[in-house]
Amino acid sequence: MISIQQLEESYIPPSQITLVFESRILWRDLATWLQAYLVSVFAGFGNQDSIEVKLREVIVKFGNILSTVFGGEIGEQYSNLITNWINTFKLLVDAQINDDLNTVNEYTNQLYENINQIAIFLSQVNPFWTESEWKALLYRFNEMLIDQLSAYLYKEYTSNIESFDRLLNLTSIIGNYYSRGLLNYLTYSR
Q: Hey, is 44 helix, strand or coil?
């Protein structure tokens, strides 16, 4: 009975509830399009521009969700952070292909710095998200993407399938944390 009264007091518009549910799948979409990018690069399909359009669409959705909940400036800042992270990953792919160890190390370190910035940012905009939890989740995400990159580089295709499956499972965990944080913010911060 108490929770019903609490929910009545903190009404969340249906459009925002829809955004919360849609936010769960964005992490899966991101992983899927990054996987498609790797396939395109290593198979030589030549459709990287089309895939980058899809990646930008995911980034825009991330930004729109945070803009709706926290305001346009927050959404834009988050979009910039995700864009920087994706661009660094693409540079890492190129460095791996070119077998440039120094540049690989530089971009790998930059990926983790990007993640640190994202974790700090998200924990500052929403009290229901913690920096340590975001770091733990996104470090694992990063590691799995790098594992996929290595599997393609060394033609370990079975390993890549297993790695991608684990990555998709992780995106469900990240999506749940992300959406639960949004829902809690909308429920208890009004």
A: coil
Neighbours of 107 (CB within 10 A): 21
Chain centroid, CA 66 distance in Å: 13
CB 147 within 8 A of CB 163: yes
Residue 47 has pLDDT above 90, yes or no: yes
- Whether residue 17 contacts residue 48, with contact meaning beta carbons closer than 8 Å, is answered with no
pLDDT beyond 70 at 82 = yes
d(CA 110, CA 20): 30
d(CA 33, CA 53): 10
Residue type, 143: E
In terms of pTM, does the model score above 0.85? Answer: yes
Locus of tokens 């120094």:
102
The single-letter code of the amino acid at 151 is: A
Using CA atoms, how far apart are residues 122 and 59, in angstroms rounded to an integer?
Answer: 15
Query: Tens digits of per-residue pLDDT, 170-185?
Result: 999 999 999 999 999 9
Tell me which DSSP letter residue 13 carries: -
- Predicted confidence (pLDDT) per residue in 139-166, tens digit: 999 999 999 999 999 999 999 999 999 9
